[in-house]
Design a protein that fits this description.
single chain; Phosphoribosyl-aminoimidazole Synthetase, Chain A, domain 2; 7-stranded mixed beta sheet; 27 helices
């Protein structure tokens, strides 16, 4: 008998490269790559860094607008908010690391997005987060939720940046692959904004910040470029470790260096570490870079050159410095107790050369790493059968309306997230005008920065609705975010997005991604909102299947007068309540449909022009100063929106929805159906009458008035009454009860 050991797996496959991609590397180099070069290629050609399955599709998105200061391609986007100020913002994912180790995965996700913002010269002033987990009756989901929320709070609170908004959702398809998307907003004088392109042959490359270790090697870039499996979940050593206090010093150091005009360019070291930062800076500047890994300050001894190049150790930045200004840069860094180490030079070679002292250990054309990486065409096809199982039934169809309201209001997706956001400091920095739970969008004034008025920021998405119809669901995500801004009186200036999807090599997932991007494009064009940046996170699936397709949208808008922003809660008895906008509720994709154990395969398509007109009307109404509260109709439908206003204020309301029942076809659909377009505005009766008179083509229904201790809903002779106290208890108790 003879036996033979299985053939060793080729090294390039272990690093995530296909045979064809490896052959492409050999062709571009004219030889076999050495180990350092192969490691660098494997990360630069990973999905996370190269966007090789989404790059062509993303060109569909509109990126131009009158307020755009920086668009896609920089560390963050930026828009002009007047008074010589620009607001930088971006959203990014840290999904796979968070599924492996939720505390550090989420914490370093916050740290990374903060660096993206101050890398272009903006001071971070706010963080928002969009989180998705499996159903909360799962011990794993509760573990991930608890760890992620704690990690976000730890990093944001420690560094002194307010966490001002976000969302948390629970769905079965996120059980094994949670989503942790973090958004940062920063402010800067417009003229201080800096780009990442390396320039000036002979200039030095200086590494700022923390020591380089083996933590994170193969981390975000590899984890985010393949499906999660048991081996991935055992990969805790690859998850980066964050230190918010180191980052705080690094941030202040970088901002002072930029204030002094000492840095022609600055780049964050995120996924793929020095490999990515150096090659991208060189590509954007049309130059070459020589890096000497022997000069990189190390946390661990005997690190190989490839380990130094691919390390994802946190709290590091790479900057270009003119030779005559090196001493000034080092002096500023020493004052902030930040390491500043010259490790390379800008060259005219158009190559990335990696040296270990006098030895060249890597020599690669920059274009081969960045500009000439493989880009694949998607092969989208609608699924021939449902991709997702129906959710478990938790509510019967024939329940009493009052009981149904309390059940939907207390469902994990609709229930208050106070348990989470009270772990975050939302006031640090003293800019916060509207905080989580207070209004539909966070509002931050610009007075500290020499500006007038304020900005409003929001982040939104609904994966279950996108699973029903990727195009319509993506349109709704944009509309929801814009509607939240309108409730604060803000006009959107720019949008950032994070596209969280499964394996794009599968035709059904490619179809979801394609249709969702088309929906984002059409909604942005209709509203006149440019996309200034974003992130793509693919391969979010495991043995149980893909996640729901989840495009997350973040938006920034301008508010002329921060004193006229409105809370979502009623403010006094006797105010009239108007339902404003082209709201056409339907149970398809709704929270009630989910609780009843069903998942629709379609959504109604929104009339984008009608939606745009309604947003303008709501925004102008809020800015008029004649209304007291504004709240959009979202998860859980009209009944839950009304109940949320009651619970937040302690005031009841009496409404009649008979006309809406006729339009929706049933009382259930009128009360719990979902869809874009609805906003509840409350104010003095004469203000509402004036709104009706000038609404034009925008529907405005006067549905009732505030007052009393109950929410009373009437429809065609039927009356449902729920006490405000019971509504508040249902809304507030769900998450605290998960963590007694």
């Amino acid at each position: 008998m003879s036996s033979s050991a299985p053939a060793a797996r080729p090294r390039h496959r272990e690093l995530g490269l296909t045979d064809a991609e490896y052959d492409g590397i050999v062709t571009r180099l004219g030889r076999e790559p050495n180990p350092t070069e192969l490691a660098v290629f494997s990360l630069m050609w990973s999905e996370h860094c190269a966007y090789k399955h989404s790059r062509r599709l993303l060109r569909l998105l509109p990126t131009d607008g009158p307020a755009v200061v920086m668009g896609p391609g920089e560390n963050a986007g930026a828009v002009d908010v007047g008074d010589g100020l620009a607001v930088a913002f971006k959203v990014e994912s840290h999904n796979h690391p968070s599924a492996v180790e939720p505390f550090q995965g989420a914490a370093t996700g916050v740290g990374g997005i903060l660096r993206d913002v101050f890398a272009i010269g903006a001071r971070p002033i706010a963080v928002l987060d969009s989180l998705r987990f499996g159903e909360p009756d799962s011990p794993r989901s509760r573990y991930l939720l608890n760890g992620a929320v704690a990690g976000i709070g730890h990093y944001g609170n420690s560094i002194g940046v307010a966490t001002v908004g976000g969302e948390i959702s629970f769905e079965g398809p996120y059980e094994h692959n949670c989503l942790v998307n973090a958004m940062c907003v920063g402010i800067a004088p417009r003229e201080r904004m800096v780009r990442s392109a390396a320039a000036g042959v002979g200039n030095h490359l200086v590494l700022l910040g923390a020591l380089t270790g083996r933590d994170g090697i193969g981390g975000a870039s590899v984890l985010a470029s393949a499906e999660l499996d048991a081996a991935s979940l055992a990969a805790r050593p690859t998850v980066q470790i964050g230190d918010p206090f180191e980052e705080n010093r690094l941030m202040h150091c970088c901002l002072e260096l930029l204030d002094r005009g000492l840095l022609p360019s600055l780049q964050d070291l995120g996924a793929a570490g020095l490999s990515s930062s150096a090659s991208e800076m060189a590509s954007k500047g049309g130059v070459g870079i020589d890096l000497d890994v022997s000069k990189v300050p190390l946390r661990e001894e005997d690190m190989e050159p490839f380990e130094v190049m691919v390390s994802e150790s946190q709290e590091r930045m790479l900057c270009v410095v003119e030779p005559e200004r090196i001493d000034e840069v080092i002096a500023v860094a020493e004052r902030w107790i930040v390491r500043a180490t010259p490790i390379g030079t800008v060259t005219d070679s158009d190559r990335l050369r990696v040296l270990d002292g006098d030895e060249v250990v890597g020599d690669v054309p920059v274009s081969a790493l960045v500009d000439d990486c493989p880009v694949y065409d998607l092969t989208p096809e609608p699924p021939g059968a449902p991709l997702y199982a129906a959710p478990p039934r938790r509510l019967e169809d024939d329940g009493e309306i009052g009981d149904t309201l309390l059940a939907v209001l207390g469902s994990p997706n609709v229930a208050s997230k106070r348990w989470a956001y009270e772990q975050y400091d939302s006031y640090v920095g003293s800019r916060t005008v509207r905080r989580p739970g207070d209004a539909d969008a966070a509002v931050l004034h610009l007075h500290h920065d020499g500006g007038a008025g304020a900005i409003a920021v929001a982040i939104d998405g609904n994966g279950r609705r996108v699973a029903c119809d990727p195009y319509a669901g993506a349109v709704e995500a944009v509309l929801e975010c814009a509607r939240n801004l309108a409730c604060a009186g803000a006009e959107p200036l720019g949008l950032t997005n994070c596209l969280n999807f499964g394996n794009p090599e599968k035709p059904a997932i490619a179809w979801q991604l394609t249709r969702a991007v088309e929906g984002l494009r059409d909604a942005c064009i209709a509203l006149g909102v440019p996309v200034v940046g974003g992130n793509v996170s693919l391969y979010n699936e495991g043995s149980e299947g893909p996640i729901y397709p989840t495009p997350v949208v973040g938006m920034v808008g301008r508010v002329p007068d921060s004193e006229r922003t409105l809370p979502s809660a009623w403010t006094e008895d006797g105010h009239a309540i108007a339902l404003v906008g082209p709201f056409r509720p339907d149970l398809a994709g709704s929270e009630l449909e989910k609780l009843r154990g069903r998942l629709a395969g379609w959504l109604p398509v929104a009339d984008l022009e009608a939606q745009r007109a309604a947003l303008v009307l709501v925004r102008d109404a809020v800015r008029s100063g004649r209304f007291a509260s504004a709240h959009d109709v979202s998860d859980g439908g009209l009944a839950c929106a009304l109940a949320e206003c009651c619970a937040a204020s302690g005031l009841g309301a009496r409404v009649d929805v008979s006309a809406l029942v006729d339009e929706a076809g049933s009382l259930d659909a009128a009360l719990f159906g979902e869809g874009p377009g609805g906003v509840l505005l409350a104010g003095a009766p004469d203000a509402v009458e004036n709104l009706v008179a000038r609404a034009g083509s925008v529907p405005v229904r006067v549905v009732g008035s505030t007052g009393g201790t109950e929410l009373v809903v009437e429809a065609r002779g039927a009356t449902v009454a729920v006490s405000v106290a019971r509504a508040r208890e249902a809304h507030e108790r769900t998450l605290p009860d998960l963590f007694p």
